[in-house]
Amino acid sequence: MRFGRALLVALALAYGFAVGCATVHAAGLDEAIAHFTTDDFDETLTGIKEVAASGNPRAEIIIGALQTGQLMFSAERKAVYIQDSAGKLTDAATGEPVAGAPPADLDTVNINNRLRGAIAAALGQLTLLSNDPQKRYEAAQAVFKSRAAAALRTLETAIAKETDSRTKVELELARAAILLNIAGTSDADKLAAIAIVGDRGDQEALALLADIPARESPTVARAAIDAINAIQTRLREWEAVQDAWYGISLGSVLLLAAIGLAITFGVMGVINMAHGEMVMLGAYVTFVVQEVIRRYDPALFDYSLAAAAPLAFLFSGSVGILIERTIIRFLYGRPLETLLATWGLSLILQQAVRTGFGPTNKEVGNPAFMSGAFDVGGITITYNRLWIVCFALAVFVALIALLRLTRFGLEMRAVTQNRAMAASMGIRTSRIDALTFGLGSGIAGMAGVALSQIDNVSPNLGQGYIIDSFMVVVFGGVGNLWGTFVGSFVLGIANKFLEPYAGAVLGKIAILVLIIVFIQKRPRGLFALRGRAVEA
Amino acid sequence: MSSRSTLNLQLNRRRWLTAAGGLALGLMAPLPAMAEGTIKVGILHSLSGTMAISETTLKDVVLMLIDAQNKKGGLLGKKLEAVVVDPASNWPLFAEKARELISQDHVAVVFGCWTSVSRKSVLPVFKELNNILFYPVQYEGEESQRNVFYTGAAPNQQAIPAVDYLMSADGGSAKRWVLEGTDYVYPRTTNKILEAYLKLKGVKDEDILINYTPFGFSDWQTEVSKIKAFGSAGKKTAVVSTINGDANVPFYKELGNAGIKATDIPVVAFSVGEEELAGLDTKPLIGHLAAWNYFESIKTPANAAFIKEWHEFTKNPKRTTNDPMEAHYIGFNMWVKAVTKVGTTDPDKVIEALPGTQAPNLTGGISTLLPNHHITKPVYIGEIRADGQFDVVWKTKELVPGAAWSPYLPGSKDLVADWVKLNCGNYNTVTKTCGGS
């Protein structure tokens, strides 16, 4: 009996102790979380710091939810919740599901840029020792940016434990950034830190080193200045590479926009002012394809462009054939009428799309493989531009192959070189005309798929490219696909080398002037066609 | 119920005013707009061409307001009739269409224009034919015309507060500035004002980079890398964007892909609203800012009712609302009040009655039309959210009165506009003359 009572007391005590401990532990977090219920940025900032410092295992989840806008609060109940994507609430502190109806005044805990910075820093600190190497890598980058001195101890532990070399470099960098920014670092440590940061050699390193010469001892200042100069020299060397890359990228866009025109205008001689609208239709096909995929199977989203490209080719191509059969074939040999008719047509197509889809921009998403960027040496290359360059080249190669290697290509060349002779050899010239115009329009449609990734998908999309397209085709030499190819890259690269010095507006004007002068000297463009075909 | 009783009250007051002598005056003035039994309201917004993307929505909102007013019994006992014309984003055509609206259709008032150049092109027409224009878009200021009422923001109601915010601790204490704009009158004037203001605040020449690009610019690689390089000088850098129209989407796409995050280099835009973001995946842009006098996400009963009405009117639950729409909402209600007050649509009387008129805005305040033909508005700074809407992160405590002339420009710091006491849009307080600058 006595033993039993003693046991009971002991149990009760133990229970009380356990409960007491639990409340103490949770209270730290609860108090910290309470800052989130005021809807005040300063309070929320305090909350982030306290939650991060609480050492509670849920800290990472709570701050993560705050970052993604899933942290909710009710001022009335003084409670904080996490709302999952399905709309279900769990208690932020305990992770328990919330029973009953959600509070009436449920609202998101708002954040601003300052808080976003603090969140990234806090999450960085919390995940430095994560088991996931990718998380550790991101954490190291976050700490590098925040330079929060509080993370130094954890950082050193992390560096000692790190096995992944890529992450280790980032961790060392983060440590160097902190050491350079806190008081009491020895000069030797600072010099080592400057060396590490200097090795990084990019603009962020430059930003970190920029104010050191002004506030440090002469030796450290000297080292910092040397590092800055080294980085700047390196960046300047890369600048030319960067301009060249931007030029290639712009050239690929010009090539895509112009290559269809190189066929309809260059090869067939039709001044097709509605060419831009074919591009626009291609972009809208992409939009429709993406909408269908979003509705029926979002998992296939990354393949949307692969599906859109042939569809855009077929759709714009069919529209092209329709236009050729109904309008253009009656106007062959009458350039002025063709110009006016196709210009009117372009307005009709624009307004039709505006009426059908509305005047506002349509959202065409980037598939995952086309988002973001990567660094090569001192330049940043964005994936969407890289893919567009590849796509432009692929389309060009395919087109050349079509013209050189297929029967249709042969017939097409025959008809454009000598119509009468081709007809007498049994080629149905009017059918070839329609198909050729369809081919040019279809390629414009494919260009629209690519352009939807970098430009507005709006009824005006085509207008922005029509002048550039004509410019490229005329500059390159009418009737020559290689001329269009070389012309677009020459113009793109020239434009991008001029732009940093002359500015975008003057750069564009300078290019136009250069082309005018060039055309005065060589009226037939870069690659002039010679022979009897030209005279016909 | 309440709406009906106010209507009766307004009608009674109208009768009373008419009886008190308004009738006599009203009969003397030629009132073509009323002669046909309806009051005609002109809508001068581009429905085709480059500006259609922004202006079509404004046409729709005026149609909705007219519709709602007619359901409430019209105005002065007559129905309102909308006359819609399409100036097709063609600036000279704006002047032609304005002339057509006033002299052929005899409209009582015109709601219209978006770009400053289109407004400048119609000014002489409104002056010559003496009619009223309500202009709903944020603009560069430096103007005050007798026939024009500016319901959008003047620079002191948008640009200056936005810069103040970025300089504050919450905005990131920016020390270095990129002023990036489209190459035309609005960005150029705004940037001139901002440059003067920044220098006044102690920002050095080398910490300001001003850049212009053409309309519809789509290859932003060089510009974005320039911004990135400018931002790596160790000082907090912010971008003030006056990029207009179609160029915005490729700009933001490039920004997102180049990985410029709002926490590193925030971009505050003056011409990017819910409408422009509709064509974008905003996830890489979270935290970039816009300064406006209205955001769709602001929670007030008036705004909720407006959004509901808009969705019902357009039969599209996804159509967004934006700042210039709110400006038309305020302007339209002010015009209705002024007309009701004087009991006639005669432009001279309405122009005289409009200053001092008050109308509720959609964010919970009451806007007043000032003697300089601008209105009082609250200023909000919003951050882009993942769903293409904005989170308000800062707002002015009170409504800010719009200033026609900027005190930061040497050419306009002595000018005031006051159409009530001085009857002048550019009165020089130093030389005490009207018309000097």
Summarize the SSE layout with pairings.
The complex is a heterodimer of chains A (536) and B (437).
Chain A: H1 2-34, H2 41-53, H3 59-67, E1 71-74, E2 79-83, E3 89-91, E4 107-108, H4 113-127, H5 133-146, H6 152-161, H7 165-181, H8 187-200, H9 203-209, H10 212-215, H11 218-267, H12 275-296, H13 304-326, H14 335-357, E5 373-376, E6 379-382, H15 383-405, H16 407-417, H17 419-424, H18 429-451, H19 463-476, H20 481-521, H21 532-535
Antiparallel strand pairs in A: 1-2, 1-4, 2-3, 5-6
Helix pairs in contact in A: 1-2, 2-3, 2-4, 3-4, 4-5, 5-7, 6-7, 7-8, 8-9, 8-11, 9-11, 11-15, 11-18, 11-19, 11-20, 12-13, 12-14, 12-18, 13-18, 15-16, 15-18, 16-18, 19-20
Chain B: H1 2-28, H2 32-35, E1 38-44, H3 52-71, E2 79-85, H4 91-104, E3 109-112, H5 116-129, E4 133-135, E5 148-150, H6 159-167, E6 176-182, H7 185-200, E7 208-213, H8 221-230, E8 237-242, H9 248-257, E9 267-269, H10 274-277, E10 289-292, H11 301-314, H12 323-342, H13 347-353, E11 358-360, E12 366-368, E13 376-377, E14 380-384, E15 390-395, E16 400-401, E17 415-418, E18 424-428, E19 433-434
Parallel strand pairs in B: 1-2, 1-3, 3-4, 4-5, 6-7, 6-8, 8-9, 9-10
Antiparallel strand pairs in B: 10-14, 11-12, 13-16, 14-15, 17-18, 18-19
Describe the structure in your own words:
The complex is a heterodimer of chains A (536) and B (437). Chain A has a 4-stranded antiparallel β-sheet. Chain A has 21 helices and 6 strands. Chain A has 3 domains: 20-113, no CATH class; 128-216; 238-535, ABC transporter involved in vitamin B12 uptake, BtuC. Chain A has 536 residues and is mainly alpha-helical. Chain B has 437 residues and is α/β, with parallel strands linked by helices. Chain B folds into 2 domains: 2-153 and 300-377, 3-Layer(aba) Sandwich (Rossmann fold); 156-297 and 382-404, Rossmann fold. In chain B, 39% of the residues lie in helices and 19% in strands. In chain B, the strands form 5 sheets. In chain B, strands 7-6-8-9-10-14-15 form a 7-stranded mixed β-sheet, with helices on both faces. In chain B, strands 2-1-3-4-5 form a 5-stranded parallel β-sheet, sandwiched between helices. Chain B has a 3-stranded antiparallel β-sheet with strand order 17-18-19, with no helix packed on it. The longest helix of chain B has 27 residues, at 2-28. The N and C termini of chain B lie far apart (52 Å). The model of chain B is unreliable at 1-11 and 13-35 (pLDDT under 50).
